[in-house]
Amino acid sequence: IDLDLLEAAGMREYQKVHVVDINNGSRFETYIMNGPRGSGTVCINGAAARLVHRGDLVIIFSYCHYTGEELATYAPRIVLVDEKNRIRQSK
After folding, report:
1. What is the pLDDT of residue 71?
2. N- or C-end of the chain: fewer Cβ atoms within 10 A?
3. Rg of the chain's alpha carbons, rounded to an integer?
4. Which H or E run includes 6?
5. Are 29 and 18 in contact (CB under 8 A)?
6. Cα(5)–Cα(38) distance, rounded to whole angstroms?
7. Which backbone phi and psi does 51 adopt, to 5 degrees?
8. pLDDT per residue over 55-80, tens digit each?
9. Of 69, 75, 58, 74, which Cα lies nearest the Cα of 21?
10. pLDDT band per the 50, 70, 90 thresholds, residue 37
11. At CA 82, angle to CA 74 and CA 88, rounded to 5?
């Protein structure tokens, strides 16, 4: 995944993530591999590549454990991209 996208989302290389393919409904777990910064790369490798086709829309998300105190100030990071995976909005 493009390093700019990873940083905007607060994700790191080798972090476990879930991927949902909006086009065909596939869901799977995998891990992140860094891609070239500014490239817009979102690439599915290995066996999971059989579940997603070039041009499919995907949602990539991760989970984390928080204490009750941490949840009081927690806000999820959401990164919306355009058709070339350039950041449109990040919050």
Report:
1. 94
2. C
3. 14
4. helix 3-9
5. yes
6. 8
7. -95, -10
8. 999 999 999 999 999 999 999 999 99
9. 58
10. very high
11. 45
Tokens at residue 89, please? 């909005």
Q: What gap in Å lies between CA 44 and CA 54, rounded to an integer?
A: 9
Distance, CA of 10 to chain centre? 10
Query: For strand 27-31 and strand 79-81, is the pairing parallel, antiparallel, or unpaired?
Result: unpaired
Q: Are 80 and 40 in contact (CB under 8 A)?
A: no
Whole-number pLDDT of residue 50? 94
Assign 51 to helix, strand or coil.
helix
User: Residue 66: which of 55, 81, 76, 78 has the closest Cα?
Assistant: 76
What is the DSSP-derived secondary structure letter of residue 5? H
Q: Which residue type does 88 have? A: R
- Report the C-alpha gap between 42 and 11 in whole angstroms: 13
- For the chain, the distance separating the N- and C-terminal CA atoms, rounded to the nearest angstrom, is 19
